[in-house]
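User: I've been going back and forth on whether these two constructs are worth ordering. Before I decide, could you fold them both?

Assistant: Sure. I'll take them in the order you sent them. The first construct and its structure tokens:
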Amino acid sequence: MKTKFLISILTISLLSCTNDTHQQNESTETDLKITTVKVVNPQQRSFTSVLQIIANAIPNKRVDIHAMEGGFLSELKKDIGDKVYEGNVLAILNNPELKRELEINKVAKEVAEANYLRFKKVITKTPELTTLQEFEKVEATYLMANAKYQATLNRDSLLTIRAPFSGIITARNIELGALIQSGINNSNSIILFELMDVDIIRLTVALPETEVDNISNGMEAVISFTELPGREFPAQVSRMANAIDNRTKTMEVQFDISNKNGKIKAGMYANVELQLQSTNDKISLPNEALIAIKSEFFILQVKNGIVEKTLIKKGLSNSKYFEVLSNEVNENTQVIIEGKAMVKDGIKVKISK
């Protein structure tokens, strides 16, 4: 009987040991399945960031010159590549029908004017010889004839094509004798000349949305061109669109560069280098913490041992750090910098000491 009792106690002890070992093994296996990650807390830092971006060189002014009155091209004064000044004659058109109309209206105006002056003299010296109504009628006839003549004279002056501003003729699309239609009355009228003002070159930059808050009018930049090796051009931010393009998520920024020697050609691509300065009131993280998916930026933070994927707005960045512009991230946030590839949103993790 005593032997059986001892055997029972031994059996119970063995079963208890087996259960304890099994529970320990399960606990160990569970611990092994939980990924260990390394985290950091955001910190306030002040650092500079160099933004390098490609810009497109365009002329300060560019215009397609159309004729504002129809006629045939009788004289060609300027050609492609010519330097012209505001008001210079580029070409002369001839319109015989308009010339005849001008002569007729001139004669009608002169006759009406002579009649008006005669009536004016009469009503001034001997008013009893005419009436005020007759004088006003003659005066109205003269004014209408003069207006018609001046309008025709203005149309005739439009046959002389002049440069609206100083620049370079970059295209000519007409030949002597060609019949030119008025650009005012015909939407398909031919472009006579293309004129560009390249004394000042305007650079247009598509600035990423993430950098918009860090740029302002007057900010210094250094410009270089691949086609002009060894040369750098200082410039300042001249204009900002102050509006984000929803399609590209960029904002247009413009720089003006003096180009009196004409070395910079319209259409060149420029390298723009901007020195941006971070402020102390923003927090930053190491670049290892950043996850970029298309045009969006994320971090993985740990809350109560659980991974949470957080969308953020990225500010300035350099080779080590980037600014975090998000109300959901503060200096107490635990952000994963090692082990991101082994975890995903919602899983449990351990933080390495």
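The second construct, handled the same way:
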Amino acid sequence: LTVWKYLMFCINVGKVERLIRVLFGIAIFYLGVLHPNEPRLWGFIGLIPVITGILGWCPVYLPFKINTNK
């Protein structure tokens, strides 16, 4: 459980990147879900940057030891 707590509470995404992720994710979500001409799969893909932006934690950064949070 100690490792899991560390992974869940480690913020490895900086503030500017978090904002960009949320805005970009909302745009992708809009194209996929609300826009009638795009596939709905894009809506679900758009949720990934929104969630990682809100949480401030990106699991892809862990194996590469990337941390944009200063």
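Notes on the second construct follow. The chain has a mean pLDDT of 87. Residues 15-34 form the longest helix (20 residues).
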